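Quick sanity check, Choline transporter-like protein:
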Amino acid sequence: MRLNKLFFLFPGEAAQFDPTFKGPIKNRGCTDIICCILFMAVILGYIVVGILAWLYGDPRHVLYPRNSTGWFCGIGPNKNRPNVLYFDILKCATSINIMATALNGLHFMGFLNIFQRFFSLSLDCVYFRRPAAFHSCCLKGKTVTNAAALCFCLSSGTFVNGFNAREIGVRIFEDFASSWPWILIGLLIAMVVSLLFLLLLRFTAPVMVWVLIIGVLGAGAYGIWHCYWEYDNYKNSSSSITNVGFTTNFSVYLQVQETWLAFLIIISVAEAIILLTLIFLRTRILIAIALIQESSKAISHMMSALLYPLITFVLLLVCVAYWGATALYLATSGGPIYRVVALNATNDECKSINGSVSCDPQVSCPSASCIFIRYNNEGLLQRNIFNLQIYNAVAFLWCVNFVIALGQCTLAGAFASYYWAFTKPDDIPMFPVCGGFIRSLRYHVGSLAFGALILTLVQIVRILLEYIDHKTRSAQNPVARFIMCCMKCCFWCLEKFIKFLNRNAYIMIAIYGKNFCVSAKNAFMLLMRNVIRVVVLDKVTDLLLFFGKLLVVGGVGVLSFFFFSGRILLPGSTFRSETLNYYWMPIITVVFGSYLIAHGFFSVYNMCVDTLFLCFLEDLERNDGSLQKPYFMSKNLMKILNKSNKAPKKGKGKD
């Protein structure tokens, strides 16, 4: 009766028995060809944009400062002079009496020579340029901009505020140079702990799950006791919630009896809900535990799946590097424009540029100053820089989402081939991960691109909302702020739902080879017909993986802290923490790297759980345990569901 109600609420035909079905379908065709063509066209356009940016861009405008003669500091003739000194004549006129000398017959370059000679006497009127990406100057702690200021390349110098980023960078580099073997050892420990955690889940999952559940119940019981104890202590207190009223000092409310009574009621209700949930959903919790154990077993049979996140990481790194390089080259595609701003032309060559729109700063004219004004923005490419940057960002998001989709479909195909192997491990195909990868690229680029495009469009809307909110925050009234917050929340939820739907659609694509829309519909209907099992499995898996990440990152982080801070000394080791300038840098590196390693391993495991769960639901709908329709699930799952195969399996049978 309950099953009929679920079918009425979530229509969709249950999977029908197919005697020829034995895992991911081999004979399949290309899906979503139109979207595949569109994606390839966008990729080709992305390559063209990158080529144009590389041809017309010059990242030296951002990476190196440029002096008034048009040369870059730190390269070429200024190789040993990486810093730029900005010099404003008007500011110096009040501190040094050089201006009069310059105006009394000395030409402009002679004036500059005098300035450089007396540089040490004129510190009040000079200021250093910050790193080139900031395009600003620093004068006695204040940021100023002066496009017409004269600037020179200097061999050394510090900011006026005394901060020297290069020196700090050198010290950090020295720390990495002396500690990199130990950083690698820390990351290796994180990898080994993550691997052992996943492999041992087939034995420890039941214990860990119930220990964590009992821990939650114990924490709730302690909260109930503590709230009652506090409530009893303030029983004779004269303070009440009506006397306190409204205040921003929260500690005042903790001295009121009614506050602890409210806490007591809330925690007691939550504790009762958890207990009732455990009583009524105990079978589904056991199913979730069994699937987690089966996932650990599947990974042990195809260890190469744990290496696939490296491929995803490399592809994402390529996407990020290409996007960053293209954005940088596009931003510097306009050439610099120089104009004459100081004139006293006497010879013919200087008269020819007198009053001209532009000039060449590397042409020697003693009585003329050729100063940088701006970058050229009048060419066809420069006029469309904004549009090209938008194209760069959209194509980048689409490529990143496609790479993630490719990884999910590849792993889903591998783990599905494990589940639908009737006799394990004999019937598991050779190189299942490679097979899933080849099928995804050969047949389903269009479907993966389709799902990635939907997610990209939602992410673009979220980015636009964040941009609008940032630009209009100061002008928003409470109503507008509330509406903006609701819109951001709705699209955040929509993005989460699209990711969930895409993930399960890719699993169905990997198994049956259908297009994206059909696969998404079938996956959604299948999950909705088993919605309680979905929620229970999702929460139990999240709880276990959160505990695993906490164990890996926290354990390795604490170990690295004690080692790099000198609290642990290894006998025979030449490494000493006193040699480090900033011992926290290796610690941060190890912690961050451990998190990435744990996330990579656990993402594979999470994909395995989701794939086996969908296969398990399909197995329940397709088969009934008869001789013609035997179950493919493990004996442990059949035992939990009180099901069995009527006929013994050939070979060794399921373990």
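Posting the structure with no commentary besides this: Residues 1-10, 89-149, 157-163, 651-655 have pLDDT under 50 and may be disordered.
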